[in-house]
Amino acid sequence: xxxxxxxxxxxxxxxxxxxxxxxxxxxxxxxxxxxxxxxxxxxxxxxxxxxxxxxxxxxxxxxxxxxxxxxxxxxxxxxxxxxxxxxxxxxxxxxxxxxxxxxxxxxxxxxxxxxxxxxxxxxxxxxxxxxxxxxxxxxxxxxxxxxxxxxxxxxxxxxxxxxxxxxxxxxxxxxxxxxxxxxxxxxxxxxxxxxxxxxxxxxx
Length: 204
Description:
Number of domains: 2
CATH architecture of the largest domain: Up-down Bundle
Order of helices and strands: EHEHEEHHHHHH
Low-confidence stretches: none
Shape: globular
Oligomer: single chain
Largest sheet: 4 strands, mixed
Distance between the termini: 26 Å
Domain GST C-terminal: 85-204
Number of strands: 4
Pfam families: GST_C_2, GST_N_2
Domain GST N-terminal: 1-80
Protein name: Glutathione S-transferase family protein
Structural class: alpha+beta
Strand order of the largest sheet: 2-1-3-4
Helix content: 40-55%
Mean pLDDT: 97
């Protein structure tokens, strides 16, 4: 299997960390800023959105990072990361969808302005930071409730995608809330395979 995308992308690191958790070999080829453009015709033939990452598994091509993570877990038969029970699986996917939609949308303006240098007003940045902190507080409450991982006592794909998001929050040059459950959870995540390489590597 091959993953197309630069390692500095949080979405690429989701897939790479998932593969590390599963012990799956996953070759990676650099595409994106500073490398080959995903607007090239060859890439657009794989993903018409022109975004990274793309997974290639033989003749099968898949885009959208959370879908790639689900596919890798299913391919490996990893029912701890992605439960077979419909209700337990739905809970994991609920938090994955929340990460991709609600949480990501909250930080987009602040991160792109403060880290990537895109223009934005001070008011828009402040509103984004406030929303980012509010969403992270929701995650903190969930983790305080479970006392372990996002969906309960076991590490799942929800922890993969949200762990990377939380690391971005911790690395961002913003004023953060004190969230003790998130802090304790990040310590638990640090013991997982691949964390140092794909999460705690200083990349934003």
